[in-house]
Design brief:
522 residues; alpha+beta; six-stranded mixed sheet; four-stranded mixed sheet; 19 helices; disordered N terminus
Length: 522
Amino acid sequence: MLTGCSEHALKNQNSHGLIYCAEANPVSFNPQITTLGSTIDLTSNQLYNRLISIDANTGEFLPELAKSWVISKDRKKITFELRQDVQFHQTDYFTPTRNFNADDVVFTFSRLFDAYNPYHFVGGGQYPYFQSIGLDQLIKSIIKESDYRVSFELFDAQSSFLANIATDFSVILSAEYAKNLEINETLDNLDNFPVGTGPYKFKDYKRDILIRYYKHKSYWKHPVELEQLVYDITPNSTTRIAKMLTNECDVTPHPNSSQLSILASRNDIKVQKETNLNIGFWAFNTQKAPFDDSRVRRALAHAVDIEKIMHAVYLDNGKRLESILPNDSWAYQAQVNMPNYNPELAKRLLQQAGIAEGFKMDLWAMPVARIYNPNARKMAELIQSDLKKIGITVNIVEYEWNTFIKKLEEHAHDTVLLGWSADTPDPDNFFSPLLSCAAALNGKNAANWCDPEFDLLLSKALDTIEIEKRKEFYFQAQQMVIQELPLLPIAQGMRFQASSTSVENIEIKSFGGVSLAKARKL
C-alpha cells in the first residue's frame, strides 16, 4: 500500500509535495550516532534543530533553539538562554505535553558522556563524531539553571566547542519522548522513530523504497510550504538521473560530472553547483602490513597518476589537494612534499621496504557517489591500473553502503577510497574526526592511525583562541600528515544537485548537510 501511494500519488499533489531521489538508506534517524553524509542529509536539517548554527558566509554563530549565550572569562562555562515557543512533533507514536525546554538539552547531551543516562548504551553507545573530537570527554556537567536556561561546564577551555555544538550532529531530542519509551521498554525507538522540532516530522520508512515526512505545522521558525517530503531511495546514480528526466523525482543529489551536460540540456531541469569544504582521500590501514611502513604508503602514492584521476573522475570539476585541508580553509598550507607521480621512485621505495617483488592488496571503493568522490569505482580502476605497473595486484572490493561502513569500522580493509565533508569551518573538523587516536578507537579513522604527537598538536590548537597560534599548530599537523601519509589527499569536489525548475529554496551549504526547510514548488 505504501509503495502504491508513494511517488505517483504524490506527483498528483503538484505543489503540496516533493520527491527527492536519495542515494542510500539511512543508518538511523538520529544524526548523533552516525557520520554518514547520506544519512545526515536525510535527517538533520529536516527533522531537528540545534542550539546554534553557523552563518555559511560570515562564519558567525547564529541563534537557533538558544536565543543567546554567555561565555565565562575562563571559557569553561557556556550558558544558553533558550526559546520558549518551540513545539516538538506530534506523530502517530508520540503526543508532546510541553514545549522544548532545558530538560531536553540536558538529556540530549548527557546521553553522550553519562553512563548512567539510560540511553547512553542504546545502539552500542557509539557517538562517532562526538567521540572522535573528544566532546564526550570535554563536558564536565550540564546544569539546568531554569526551564529556559542551561549551562555547560567544561573540563578545559576549547576553542572549537561552539562550532561543534553548531554541527548537524548536535540535534536536540525530546526528553519527554525518551521517558515514555523508557516506561514502555522500547528505548531503541528513540533513534528509529524520531521526534524533533524541525520543519518536518516522520511518517513512515520502507527500506530500499522510500522515507515519508509530513510538514510540522507548528514549526517555530517559519511556515513550511510542503505538505509532504518523500525520499525515493535510489542508490544507482544513472537510475536517479533517469528518474529526473522522466519527472519521477523533483530533486537528486550528486549527479556524476559526465551526466551534467545531459541535465543542462533540459529546460525543465536546473543544476546547482556549490563549493563545499570537503576532501576525497585514499586511506591506508596503518595497522596492517605492509601498510604499517610509511615507505610503502609513499610508494603507493607515487605510483598513482592523480592528474588522470582529476580528468577521468572529477572531469576537471574538482581541485587537486595539496594538503589534508582544502585550500579555502583558513588554516590551509600547501605541502611541498606532496607525492608526485613517479613510478620509478615508487619501485625504489618498495625495494627499500624489502618488497621489490610487489604484493596483492584490497582496495575498497564506496558504492555511492559523494561530493568528495563522484565515482569511487572508476577511481579504483585507475589506481588498480597504475599499481599493476609497479608489480602490485589490486582487488577492488565493494559492498552495499551501510555494510561497507560497518566493515570499515571493524578495520577489515587494506586500503579504502573515502572522504569527508566538513560540518563547520573550523579546521579541527578535518583533523580530529579523520586522524585522531579517539577516532581510531571508535572505528571512524579509516587509516587506523594513532600518533600521540599528532594528537598533542591538535590539543594545543584547541587550547587557544588566538588564530595565528592555532594556524601554527595546524601547519605542523598538516606537515606531519603528508610526512607520514596515513592517507593520501586526492581532491576537493564540487557539490552538484539537479532539481526541477519548479522547485525553489533548497539550501546547499558550503559545510554541513542540505536543508529542505524552505523548499517549495511553484
